[in-house]
Amino acid sequence: MKEERSFIVAGIAAFREKHRLAWEDLTVGVAGDILQALTDHKVLYATPLPDYALFNPRNRTEADSIVSEFAARGCRTFCDKMADLPGVLLWVCVFSLKVPVEGGPYPPLSLTTPFKEWHKLDSASLPGEMTPFVFKGERYHLENVLAHFLTPGLAVGERPAENHFRVRRESDDRLISIPLLNCYFVSAFVWRDRCYCFGRWQEGGGFRLAETVSEDLISWSSPRTILDLSAERIGICNSAVTFDGKRFVLLYECADSKYPIFTFKFLESEDLLNWRPIPEALCVWRKYAGGPAMYFFAPFYYVTYVDLFIHPVTRKLCFRTSITRSKDLIHWEEAPEDRPVLLPDFSSRPDPEGHPDVWDVNASDAEFIQEEGRVRAYYNGSNQWGVSDNRTAVCPGTMQELFEGFFV
After folding, report:
1. 112-171 pLDDT, tens per residue?
2. Per-residue DSSP letters for 125-173?
3. Looking at beta carbons, which pairs linking 371-377 to residues 24 or more positions away fall under 8 Å?
């Protein structure tokens, strides 16, 4: 939502008054990649988390005018390089490293989604990205596991070589196999009684997308690289695969420095083994996006993804699941902002025993599966900084009806 200049200026002034700060204690900036900008300025991923507020200016001229006004009052200012990208979603932020953010849950939102209630997943699965899939008539989960969830007290990001993925049968919650270590962001796709898994091979810096295949979910082929971006130093994260009736299409999420993190690009294949880039195919390039899932219902490819939004009361970053669609993987139609797929439940705590002070601000990494008469979503609630849980929710109807409904 684009916001009036007067609203943004008043909000920045109110932030100063709230904390009784001198103008020199504030930083005001404009960014085209707000997540990266706040991280670079040590506002995010810090303990305690410094207080900040966000706004969406209507255009670059307005954003620059606001920053100049506060620079004249003595504020520190900045403009990130992504703000120069034509068509990028712009943000204006204000923060002070002298004041911590207030604790407690955010107020509820007035928006709703087709998924009316959620539950924590009743499973031994550790928190992380998950792909539900059906294999030879049985439902399974592919679970991504971060090493810090395996050892209590381990800091987020430690011992990354122990990151891996697992396959678990849903009916009895039995662990079936642990196919690979030293990988993450793995997704599953089943075709003709074979399970194909695609994920970031971490050895060498995470610049390669690897594939492993199984006919029984126990024995797996050696991982083979299907995409190598080492020369460009472009990191690869999540992926998703669908079949459009003629070819297989693979979406991969990459940290291409020419765009806000992350950007979705595409590969195609006739056999699920040999892949080639699809020229000019690019999705959600003008803003932060992540955790994609992809489905095809003719004539559209539908992509769901985690999306940033501003909480209307706290003015802090929150994370929802949104949806976009395309007929050609080049021209995309985004669903209206007031039609999210999934929203955070601000009254919940992802880990009330281990982190009782952490409240939910996120509904991300969603994947969907068709059940009889309803659609089930699997997704993560979290603070987006290492504390998360696995959730599931349902809505009536079919997946095609669900996705089409966001564009009616």
Report:
1. 999 988 999 999 999 999 999 999 999 999 999 988 888 877 887 788 889 999 999 999
2. PPSS-EEEEEETTEEEEEEEE-GGGTSTTPPTT-SGGG-EEEEEETTTT
3. 373/397, 375/399, 375/402, 376/132, 377/115, 377/341, 377/342
The model's pLDDT over 300-311, given as tens digits with 9 standing for 90+, comes to 999 999 999 999
Q: Nearest CA to 88 among 52, 59, 54, 67?
A: 59
Cα 400-247-168 angle, rounded to 5 deg: 65
CA distance 252 to 249: 10
Cβ(264)–Cβ(278) under 8 Å? Answer: no
CATH for the 118-405 domain, from 3.90.1170.30, 2.115.10.20, 3.30.70.260, 3.30.950.10:
2.115.10.20
The Cα–Cα gap between 155 and 380 comes to 19
CA distance 166 to 205: 22
Q: Can you tell me the distance from the alpha carbon of 95 to that of 383, in angstroms, rounded to the nearest whole number?
A: 19
Residue 140 neighbours by CB distance under 10 Å:
23
User: Where do we find the tokens 């031994």?
Assistant: 124
Q: Could you tell me the pTM of the whole model?
A: 0.95
Q: Is 152 exposed, middle or buried (0-12, 13-18, 19+ CB in 10 A)?
A: exposed
Domain locations in the chain?
Answer: 5-100, 118-405
Residue 342 DSSP class: B
Q: Is the peptide bond before 352 cis (omega within 30 degrees of 0)?
A: no
Burial of 393 (0-12, 13-18, 19+ CB in 10 A): buried
